[in-house]
Automatic annotation (TrEMBL):
Gene3D superfamilies: FF domain (1.10.10.440), P-loop containing nucleotide triphosphate hydrolases (3.40.50.300)
Single GO MF descriptor: GTP binding
Domain PG2 pseudoGTPase: 666-697
FF domain sequence ranges: 309-371
Listed name of the protein: RHG35 protein
Organism: Illadopsis cleaveri
Regions crossing the membrane: none
Boundaries of every PG1 pseudoGTPase domain copy: 469-648
Keywords of the record: Cell projection, Coiled coil, Cytoplasm, GTPase activation, Nucleotide-binding, Repeat
CDD domains reported in the protein's UniProt record: pseudoGTPaseD_p190RhoGAP-A, Ras_like_GTPase
Domain of life: Eukaryota
Length: 697
């Protein structure tokens, strides 16, 4: 109850966190060590204490108040721990205060931070009368107001966190520094403290992580049906397998690693796998989840339904073929009652059986028309006495129908009378104007087929090269490869040439021009074709996955550029893909690729680009060396053959002939073996689709 305190050279503490850790905080001493007391907070614990008699406690408080009252200093009674307060204790404390003159009571809870500031504010107002009088609010009313205030502050703080924190990798110290200037952060920390602010942050981060995992799970589950379709499309293979055996079957599939990945740490969502954004393969342990099991069962059910529908489609077609009620031209409405049964309705949708019936009708009609055409040819004498304009009278048409009427092939088209009459008129027109346009066989007409074969198998005479290169004794070769591969091989080939860059192929000397390219082919300096260089072929080199990707990208860019220029020669440039290695290279590709994997990748790319593929094994050389002279000769021979084909010109005795297939052709090329033959030799082999002599290979 003293009003003057001496505390010389004592440290000032601002929070209990500083106790025992004074060196970690700013140290301030009390000024002069003297502290006058202006007022007192008389604290009364109104919670239920162990072995404590509240009446005795209230007597102690009463005696203490009497001592404080002697100081003539303001006193405020503060009821503490009201969050656990006993109602009788609170009433008794208020009754005690009522017996004193102007003694004010504030109900507080330090744990809930309710009315703590009000208690000090009330005392300050009593000390300094110039201040406005504080309104004292009962504990439960203040608690309600504070709860509302905290809820509003929490909403704003959570909004701030959601705006700033977008990744579940964020850490609290970094985020707290970012949020420090924001009033939403300051208000919530003031009301609830830093620990609760951090707790809400961690909850938000955990929610972000779960949302990320769920997105990945949905992506994997969306991909799973495609994986099952690709790996186990056959129902017989999995129909009676248990789940464990089905999983073993999947692992044994060659393309298993394309769709799935087996993780060392499981489950997949508990490790680092969830953060591999670029990963598109499905964690294999995902198959153990209920959602994946449902998709597997759905896959089985789909295969069973597809088989059943296929059986129903087959049965429906067989029903159509065996039914005597389905005739050419009969509408579906008339045939339905004779064809359909409950199974067809259950398993086939209307568009499906309508499509099957339509296709079957087309086959029936086409066969009936073909038979009717044969019938017309058999009765050729009916059409000999017509007028030259080939327009028969009604009487003549009646005679024709009367003669043919008893024939079954005539009756087969009784529901297609208009088409039957049109066939008769078309046949009459053909009799008097026999051309390939009026031939009843249409596209199967021999004359039309010969003309079509000649036009598709023979190349038109190529336009003269703007560079004037018509001499076959020159070979222009592009060498494509990154990281020095192109330059190195170009130097090796030049070392095999004569001093004037000549190279011998099959005993003949050719001038060899090389253009090594290692950069972006869209740049003029790396273009395949220049004003002074017209390529005849391209040698594509690779020794790793990266260099193979460069080759593919360069070829695609070159073809796109050729398509933009409408340059058919550049778009069809002969390519040869070769697996090589730089000098001094090891026994595998860069990045740890094995020889076998590089060969397989090269074969796939060669198939995609439709080009020749050479690998070290095919030439009998060890990996780690570049291609040998024999392989270079094979490549150049292939380019020469392709160049000759492009320069092939079909000759004729008439200067006015421009297209192959004209009647006056003297020399043509056999469509099967490529040899020039006389016009009198070419027709029969074409029609029989046989070579005029055994073709090599």
């Amino acid at each position: 109850a003293a009003t003057k305190l001496a505390s010389a050279e004592k440290l000032m503490y601002f929070c209990t966190d500083q106790l025992g850790l004074e060196q970690d905080f700013e140290q301030k001493q009390m000024p002069d060590g003297k502290l006058p007391v202006d007022g007192f907070l008389l604290c009364v614990d109104v919670s239920r204490g162990m072995n404590r008699n509240f009446d005795e406690q209230l007597k102690f408080v009463s005696n203490l108040y009497n001592q404080l009252a002697k100081t003539k200093k303001p006193v405020v009674v503060v009821l503490t721990k009201c969050d656990e307060g006993v109602e009788r204790y609170i009433r008794d404390a208020h009754a005690f205060a009522l017996g004193k003159k102007n003694l004010q009571v504030v109900e507080t809870s330090a744990r809930s931070n309710v009315n703590v500031e009000l208690a000090f504010g009330t005392l300050v107002q009593l000390v300094d009368k110039s201040r406005g009088k504080a309104k004292i609010i009962p504990y439960f009313e203040a608690l309600k107001q504070q709860s509302q205030q905290i809820a509003a502050a929490k909403d704003k703080y959570e909004w701030l966190v959601s705006r700033i924190v977008k990744s579940h990798h964020e850490l609290w110290p970094n985020v707290a520094r970012k949020m420090q200037p924001a009033p939403e952060f300051q208000d919530y920390v003031y009301l609830e403290g830093t620990l609760k602010a951090k707790k809400l942050f961690l909850q938000h981060v955990q929610r972000l992580k779960q949302e990320h995992i769920e997105r990945r799970r949905k992506a994997y589950l969306a991909l799973l049906p495609q994986a099952l379709d690709a790996l186990v499309p056959d129902l017989d293979e999995i129909d009676r397998l248990s789940r464990s055996k089905a999983e073993k079957l999947l692992e044994a599939k060659p393309d298993f690693s394309k769709w799935f990945v087996v993780l060392e740490e499981t489950p997949w969502d508990a490790g680092d796998r969830v953060d591999e954004v670029d990963s598109e393969r499905i964690p294999f342990d995902l198959l153990e989840t209920p959602a994946a099991e449902q998709l597997y069962e759905a896959h089985l059910e789909k295969l069973r339904n597809e088989r059943k529908r296929a059986e129903m489609r087959r049965a429906f077609r067989e029903n159509l073929e065996s039914s005597p009620f389905v005739t050419p031209g009969k509408p579906w409405e008339e045939a339905r009652s004779f064809i359909m049964n409950e199974d067809f309705y259950q398993w086939l949708e209307e568009p499906v059986y309508m499509d099957i019936y339509g296709k079957h009708q087309k086959q029936l009609i086409d066969k009936a028309k073909e038979d009717f055409q044969e019938l017309l040819l058999e009765y050729s004498e009916l059409f000999y006495e017509l007028e030259l304009d080939a327009k028969p009278s009604k009487e003549k048409m009646g005679v024709i129908q009367e003669v043919l009427g008893e024939e079954q092939r005539f009756k087969a088209l009784h529901k297609l009378q208009a088409e039957r009459d049109a066939l008769v008129l078309k046949h009459i027109h053909f009799v008097y104007h026999p051309t390939k346009e009026t031939c009843p066989s249409c596209s199967s007409c021999v004359d039309a087929r010969v003309e079509q074969l000649l036009s598709t198998r023979f190349l038109r005479p190529p336009h003269r090269n703007p560079l004037g290169e018509t001499n076959v004794d020159r070979i222009n070769l592009v060498i494509l490869g990154k990281d020095g591969l192109a330059r190195e091989l170009a130097n090796e080939i030049r070392a095999l040439c004569t001093n004037d860059d000549k190279y011998v192929v099959e005993g003949k000397m050719y001038e060899l021009a090389l253009r090594p390219i290692e950069g972006n082919v869209r740049l003029p300096v790396n273009a395949f074709q220049t004003p002074t260089f017209q390529p005849h072929g391209c040698l594509c080199l690779y020794n790793s996955k990266e260099s193979l990707s460069y080759v593919v990208e360069s070829i695609e860019k070159s073809r796109e550029a050729a398509a933009g220029r409408r340059d058919g020669h550049a778009a069809q440039l002969p390519l040869t893909l070769v697996l090589v290695n730089k000098r001094g290279g090891g026994g595998g590709g860069e990045g740890g690729e094995t020889l076998q994997s590089l060969i397989q990748q090269g074969q796939q790319i060669a198939s995609k680009l439709q080009c020749v593929f050479l690998d070290p094994a095919s030439a009998g050389i060890a990996y780690g060396r570049n291609i040998n002279e024999k392989q270079i000769g094979q490549v150049l021979k292939g380019l020469l053959d392709a160049k000759r084909n492009l320069n092939l010109v079909v000759g004729s005795t008439s200067p006015g002939l421009k297209e192959p297939g004209d009647a006056e052709l003297r020399v043509v090329m056999c469509l099967m073996c490529g040899d020039p033959v006389g016009a009198d030799e070419v027709l029969l082999p074409i029609l029989q689709a046989q070579p005029c002599r055994p073709a090599p290979g």
